[in-house]
């Protein structure tokens, strides 16, 4: 169990309050602004995702959907551990639901990461493992070190291990990808579970 004593400082609490009250791109959001994140400077795992979907927007709880069920299965954790901010931080690239397009949810609004991401990441000084989910998070966290495609980057996971693990998004929309890439479940998931256990002790 993580027993670190670095509780959120007054400055961190003010920053989180500001983030949760943000309405910077509300005019572009179909359901209005409702930033969804989980953050505590004691966290040893960071989940860098895309943006909340409609179901998460409604609940205000990150990954409380089918994607979260799969992600928790990959990680080998239950909801109690997953939603412990002193263990796991959850910072999507966009904190608000961006709406839906022709082929799924729209991209995260770019204003969000540009305004808040560096400030929040600077306070996560205890992170041992960053899980990077999907292309938009890969672009931010891996930048030029990523490969030509998401699949190539995930296949090269050993190059980023053990501090960073690129992952496909756990959305049910990726079921076909997972079926075509059976090596992921065979080679990556078991290693991920062991690493998570090591990080949250």
Q: Secondary-structure map with pairings?
A:
Blueprint: H1 10-20, E1 45-48, H2 54-59, H3 66-75, H4 79-82, E2 88-90, E3 100-101, E4 104-105, H5 110-121, E5 129-133, H6 135-141, H7 150-155, E6 164-167, H8 175-180, H9 182-199
Parallel strand pairs: 1-2, 1-5, 5-6
Antiparallel strand pairs: 3-4
What this model shows, in words?
It is a single chain. The protein has 201 residues and is an alpha/beta fold. Helices cover 40% and strands 10% of the residues. The chain has nine helices and six strands. The strands form two sheets. It has a four-stranded parallel sheet with strand order 2-1-5-6. Strand 3 and strand 4 form a beta hairpin. The chain is globular. The mean pLDDT is 95.
Number of strands: 6
Instruction: Please describe the biggest sheet, giving its number of strands, its sense, and whether it closes into a barrel.
Output: 4 strands, parallel
Separation, N- and C-terminal Cα atoms: 4 Å
User: What portion of residues belong to β-strands?
Assistant: 5-15%
Query: How do the SSEs run, as a string of H and E?
Result: HEHHHEEEHEHHEHH
Arithmetic mean of pLDDT: 95
Placed side by side, the strands forming the largest sheet appear as 2-1-5-6
Instruction: Please give the radius of gyration in angstroms.
Output: 16 Å
Residue ranges: pLDDT <50 for 5 or more in a row? none
H/I helix tally = 9
Globally, the shape reads globular
Question: What structural category do the secondary elements indicate?
Answer: alpha/beta
* Helix coverage percent: 25-40%
């Amino acid at each position: 169990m993580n027993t670190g004593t670095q509780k959120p400082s007054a400055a961190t609490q003010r920053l989180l309050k500001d983030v949760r009250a943000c309405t910077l791109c509300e005019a572009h959001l179909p359901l209005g602004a409702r930033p969804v994140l989980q953050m505590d400077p004691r966290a040893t795992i960071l989940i860098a995702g895309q943006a909340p979907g409609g179901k998460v927007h409604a609940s205000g709880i990150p990954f409380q959907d089918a994607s979260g069920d799969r992600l928790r299965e990959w990680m080998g954790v239950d909801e109690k551990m997953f939603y412990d901010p002193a263990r796991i931080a959850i910072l999507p690239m966009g904190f608000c639901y961006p709406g839906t397009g022709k082929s799924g949810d729209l991209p995260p609004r770019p204003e969000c990461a540009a305004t808040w991401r560096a400030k929040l990441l600077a306070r996560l000084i205890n992170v041992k493992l960053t899980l990077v989910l999907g292309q938009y998070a890969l672009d931010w966290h891996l930048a030029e070190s990523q490969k030509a495609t998401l699949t190539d980057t995930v296949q090269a996971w050993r190059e980023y291990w053990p501090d960073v693990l690129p992952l496909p998004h756990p959305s049910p929309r990726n079921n076909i990808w997972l079926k075509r890439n059976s090596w992921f479940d065979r080679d990556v998931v078991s290693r991920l579970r062991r690493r998570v256990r090591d990080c949250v002790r």
